[in-house]
């Protein structure tokens, strides 16, 4: 389980004296098998919180723990295990995939680095297995392709495959479907939700897309100006929002009929 315990993050301001408070006193938990969403407008602090969850930046206050261990105080072995346990799927698959590496090499290198399999045949079988899990099968149709030879939805599925090949417990997905067309988005969301049911992986899903949240999330955290202003089960948040900011977000909600 990931636990965010009164975590804050401030940055020095280049335009004015003082600091910019990106995240303020945030509390959050995420567990395997649970699909939680963090919602809010651009600049609300969602992505900064995501980067802290991934250990990419350290909080300036409070703590972030995984199974009770502060991620800023891990030893080498603990940090390696953390990198496998918590994975990321980001918004731009084109920028996250090396255009000079095939799909097979992109995933295979991760398998070898973390010693998930040894030998060319075993590595290929592991790559083929995970490609099939994300709907990119048969593997021989995709392992030799480069990112630019794939559609946007296929590239995003490769990113998901690269994440789940390490058998993570939690995936932090930052605007992971926002760049996709509606029909493609629906398919990727079905895949992500299905992996929760099949593999028990949990998600921290960062988005501003409320119709998506309503369809896939179990629990919602609402952020405004760096603060989590409301949290609760998805049905409760959408049926009876308590905070004025949540109410204003829902008042501007659009209906996305193409989602399952």
UniProtKB/TrEMBL annotation:
InterPro entries: AAA+_ATPase, ABC_transp_ATP-bind, ABC_transporter-like_ATP-bd, ABC_transporter-like_CS, Oligopep_ABC_C, P-loop_NTPase. Belongs to the ABC transporter superfamily. Residues 2-250 form the ABC transporter domain. The keyword ATP-binding applies. GO terms for biological process: peptide transport; transmembrane transport. Pfam families: ABC_tran, oligo_HPY. It comes from Microbacterium caowuchunii. This is ABC transporter ATP-binding protein. SMART domains: AAA. Keywords: ATP-binding, Nucleotide-binding, Transport. GO terms for molecular function: ATP binding; ATP hydrolysis activity.
């Amino acid at each position: 389980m990931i636990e965010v315990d009164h975590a804050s993050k401030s940055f020095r301001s280049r335009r004015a004296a003082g600091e910019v408070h990106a995240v303020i006193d945030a509390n959050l938990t995420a567990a395997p098998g649970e699909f939680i969403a963090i919602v809010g407008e651009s600049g609300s602090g969602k992505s900064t919180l995501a980067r802290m969850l991934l250990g990419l930046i350290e909080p300036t206050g409070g703590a972030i723990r995984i199974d009770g261990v502060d991620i800023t105080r891990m030893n080498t072995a603990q940090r390696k295990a953390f990198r496998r346990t918590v994975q990321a799927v980001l918004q731009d698959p084109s920028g996250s995939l090396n255009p000079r590496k095939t799909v097979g090499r992109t995933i295979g290198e991760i398998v070898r680095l973390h010693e998930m399999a040894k030998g060319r045949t075993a590595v290929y079988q592991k790559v083929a297995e995970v490609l099939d899990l994300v709907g990119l099968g048969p593997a021989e149709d995709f392992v030799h392709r480069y990112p630019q030879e794939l559609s946007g939805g296929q590239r995003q599925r490769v990113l998901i495959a690269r994440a789940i090949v390490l058998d993570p417990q939690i995936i932090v997905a930052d605007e992971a479907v926002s760049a996709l067309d509606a029909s493609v988005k629906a398919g990727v969301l079905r895949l992500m939700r299905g992996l929760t049911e099949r593999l028990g992986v949990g998600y921290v899903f960062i988005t501003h897309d409320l119709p998506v949240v309503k369809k896939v999330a179990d629990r919602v955290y609402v952020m405004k100006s760096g603060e989590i202003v409301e949290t609760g089960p998805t049905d409760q948040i959408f049926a009876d929002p308590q905070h004025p900011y949540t109410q204003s977000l829902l008042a501007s909600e659009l209906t996305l009929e193409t989602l399952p």
